[in-house]
Known about the structure:
Blueprint: E1 11-12, H1 75-78, E2 84-85, E3 88-89, H2 112-146, E4 152-153, E5 158-161, E6 164-168, E7 177-178, E8 227-230, H3 243-247, H4 255-264, H5 268-278, H6 282-290, E9 295-301, H7 318-331, E10 335-342, H8 367-385, E11 394-398, H9 405-409, H10 411-429, E12 436-440, E13 463-469, H11 484-500, E14 504-509, H12 535-538, H13 546-559, H14 580-586, H15 599-602, H16 629-635, H17 648-654, E15 660-662, E16 695-696
Parallel strand pairs: 1-8, 8-9, 9-10, 10-11, 11-12, 12-13, 13-14
Antiparallel strand pairs: 2-3, 4-7, 5-6, 15-16
Helix pairs in contact: 8-10
Amino acid sequence: MSSTSIMAGGNQVDVYRERPKSTLAKTTAVDDGPAPPPYTPSHQHSYPSQSAGFISNASSIGMAAPFLDEPRLSDLQLEWSGAERDGQAHPPPDVDNTTSEEFGVASKRRPLHKRAVFRLLLLTLAIVIIAVIIPIYFLVVKKRSRGPTHITGGDGSTIYVDGEPSFVYSNPFGGTCEFWAFLSRQVAYESSGGYYDPEDPFNNNAQANNWTPPLNTPWNISKNRINGVNLIGLFVMQPLTTPDIFQRYPGSVDEWTLSTMMTANGSLQSQMEDHYSTFITEQDIAEIAGSGLNWIRLPIPYWAIETWDGEPFLEKVCWKYILRVLQWARKYGLRVNLDLNAIPGSLNGLSHSGKVGSINFLNGVMGIANAQRTLDYIRIITEFISQPEWTNVVSMFSVLNEPEQLDQIGNAAMYSFYLKVHDMIRGITGVGQGPFIAISDGSHGVGADSTWDSTVLNGADRVALDTHLFYYTFNTPAPLPYPEYPCTKWAANMNISKATFGFTFAAEITASFNDCGLFARGSGPNDTTQETSNCDLWSDHTQWNQSVISSVLNFALSSTDAAQVGNSTAGKVEAPLWSYQLGLEYGWIPKDPRQSLLQCAQLAAFDSPFDGQYQPWQTGGSGAGVIAPTFISQYGQWPPTITGGFSAAEAASLLPMYTSTGTVATLPPPTLTASASRSISVGDGWADPTQRLVSPSSRGRLCADCMSG
Length: 709
């Protein structure tokens, strides 16, 4: 299923604009306190370690920010502002302008040699004044006169980009933003006085709205409500969310085939960078905060780190654009759920995994080898986001998106993988520190009939369960939206899961209740065959009257989430039920996300709510990181046993595995320049230097099978 959604009250919603390119999303915060002790797993694996939103009525992700920025006076606050007495500025005293005998027209002439010396002194003084004053004027006075005088802004502030006014920030909910420059001279000013502050680019004072804690304040998992949106289609492309690009290349069904076709005509980098630069802009991020949202879910691919031989993706280039989005999120007070959406081997064979077709993650001949690479990339990302510069912004790390656990990979292999991931991440961050770890329900669902209960990862430190809630299956779409369904079917199971497994959220949910919309069923030969009979209506929002809009709004309120989609080559959104931003504009998405809080109660379809009380170990407290021995005994072996189609005896000797001998990749920090008198700590991409181990290195060996298996 396409991952397009919003996180609201623990739920996530996707957002899309009706301009040619766009998409929108959300995340959490971290704990203050002493440095954590080194994490020692309560168990040891037999295999050597590798280098390597949301529905929740009254809950969200809990972490207190361990790296709080101390408030400081700005340069302009320290600057002298003129002579003042009695609270008022006074001009200099008047000067007597009467003509003197000595310097008046009638004064006596001085000897020539004295006049020459005097003129020479005047000329020298003039040269000195010019040499000092002109640089000061251009470098200090004029430079500062371009900008405002404050470093914070809010509703009505004019945002400048590259020194020019770009848009007016609209946030009727009391949100504040911080002003600084980042990457390629992206400068922000406030109309009434903010200023460009390159001295403090990692300031965490911004606040999305007045009911959301600022980034430098702890997020309470039990009390703070997540309302967010997915930036689907920005860094991981799929036909549903970026139809215009796929329509240019007939036969492309995923980013693998799309990249191959772009490379063939020599335009891969230029087209991808154009997409990264324009699909989501700073104004989109500002509009997310201005819409009452407080999180974004940011899906990223493994090729942001590297590619191996035979993989056609554009290697590393999107990383600088990922950093740009993270800094925009910081600027407007939005927390980020960073989602590793595409991994080597394809974890579900769907378009948003990078490659359509077979599943070669913990499945098939290359299953273990691709899992080794994935662990390596999870480790590299964790090291970066666990640096003090990023912990308050990237507050959740979703390590996988929709693995096909139900039919092919199986529970045992996935539980073993998640246990390995937990130990590796907490070995880097320490217990109670670092981001929440989000794991997928693997299409099992949550609640009463789910295998995700209190026995799974019991004792794990701050692990959240990510479920994706869709009203329909593609085989049984509904003719009309039924607002009661989300309340009666989803609410009870979400509450059960929070009371048993722990923090549970919906990372994907949409306002769609049928299979209508361009590429809603994929991009293959059957992508235009819908089960719904009246898709012409549901694919064209301009035909909707107020009654239709109200019914979709009520469904969206019940779901507390929706999605964003870009335009097709026709220049319009042809899957409007998946577009959060379009819904905001036309009224089927609420202007204030808090409007959904009592929707189920008003429909008399409200089940007993979760009381918001989690076990201490579920929030990083007492007992966190001590996994139940019974779970370890069952799933503590790494790598897990998979056969790849062979017998167990054959698999042990025939399934390929990588050897950790290569140089570990490191994600680079942004390039920032401070003044000569100050320095900026940007980190080196690695939070824990003791964890710099080698990586799997088999470039060229079996790499033709790395994705295809």
